[in-house]
């Protein structure tokens, strides 16, 4: 039976829509109380322990495969450090894109409005995160992993054009998947202190970004015409597929002497890793489904990306 909600009710939360300015004011207050400056809040000169993983082994793309079984402990440590640096490097790329999306969204708005000041605060958070992730790779002695050139180009075009729900949903896709992943890392004692510290900072500050993005998506999706809705669904599904596919770049496998293509094929077929990614996306998928951004044809794209 279809439930009729009072007009203006947010389909994702079954609650009346949250006022954008009231929410922004609240988020600004929370940011003033608890924000970090990783350049000074992290001890960058602390030694890197030799025996701790870069990320929880169960989050390694190869965990549970014959290739993983062939690696000794120190190779597993090296692999997981490079995997964490790749995920952070893709995070930097994504942050650079979403900063453009957010800045374009508020361009020309009255800066006295809380939502503009919140957007600028979010962009400032992302600037600090990108520096933090860049330094993490440097400290671990890993290269600056990033997307392949074709994807760099595609991202630039997307950041220049995307708007509305598809822009905020793209932001959410990356933030929510990384959030679940980093919540695991920050409390795992087998993991490097630097991974845990960067994860903790990111989890605290991203919680506010996700809150804002969810409200933007929920408020703006009902405003789309039916053809726009189809377009936004496809764009969001494509973003999700690209994020899931590119978190760990194949060059990381060379760090432990594995053939990148062979290891990438093993990672793609690794049901253990795929299930973890699917679990990490469950909350996001259910939200996007409730709000109407996953439905119809786009379901198939989500399935093909292994996220449904
Ligand atoms: Fe971030
Ligand atoms: Fe963010």
Automatic annotation (TrEMBL):
Lineage top rank: taxon: Bacteria
GO molecular function per UniProt: oxidoreductase activity
Name used for this protein in its record: Para-aminobenzoate N-oxygenase AurF
InterPro entries for the chain: AurF/CmlI (IPR025859), Ferritin-like_SF (IPR009078), RNR-like (IPR012348)
């Amino acid at each position: 039976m279809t439930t009729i909600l009072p007009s203006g009710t947010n389909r994702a939360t079954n609650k009346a829509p949250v006022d954008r300015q009231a929410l922004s004011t609240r988020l600004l207050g929370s940011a003033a109380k608890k924000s970090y400056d990783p350049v000074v809040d992290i001890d960058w000169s602390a030694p890197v322990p030799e025996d701790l993983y870069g990320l929880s082994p169960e989050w390694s793309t190869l965990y549970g495969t014959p290739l993983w079984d062939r690696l000794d402990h120190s190779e597993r440590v090296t692999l997981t450090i490079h995997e964490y640096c790749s995920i952070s490097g893709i995070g930097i790329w994504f942050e650079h894109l979403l900063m453009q999306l957010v800045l374009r969204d508020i361009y020309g708005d009255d800066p006295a409005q809380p939502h503009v000041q919140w957007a600028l605060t979010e962009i400032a958070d992302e600037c600090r995160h990108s520096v933090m992730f860049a330094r993490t790779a440097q400290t671990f002695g890993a290269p600056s992993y990033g997307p392949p050139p074709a994807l760099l180009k595609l991202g630039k075009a997307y950041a220049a054009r995307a708007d509305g729900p598809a822009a905020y949903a793209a932001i959410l896709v990356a933030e929510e998947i990384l959030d679940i992943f980093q919540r695991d890392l920050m409390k795992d004692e087998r993991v490097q202190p630097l991974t845990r510290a960067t994860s903790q900072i990111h989890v605290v500050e991203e919680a506010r970004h996700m809150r804002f993005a969810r409200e933007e998506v929920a408020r703006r999706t009902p405003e789309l015409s039916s053809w726009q809705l189809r377009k936004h669904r496809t764009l969001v599904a494509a973003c999700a597929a690209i994020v899931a596919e590119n978190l760990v770049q194949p060059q990381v496998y060379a760090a432990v002497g594995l053939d990148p293509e062979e290891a990438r094929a093993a990672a793609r077929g690794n049901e253990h890793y795929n299930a973890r990614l699917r679990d990490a996306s469950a909350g996001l998928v259910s939200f996007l489904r409730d709000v109407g951004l996953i439905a119809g044809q786009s379901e198939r794209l989500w399935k093909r990306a292994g996220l449904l």
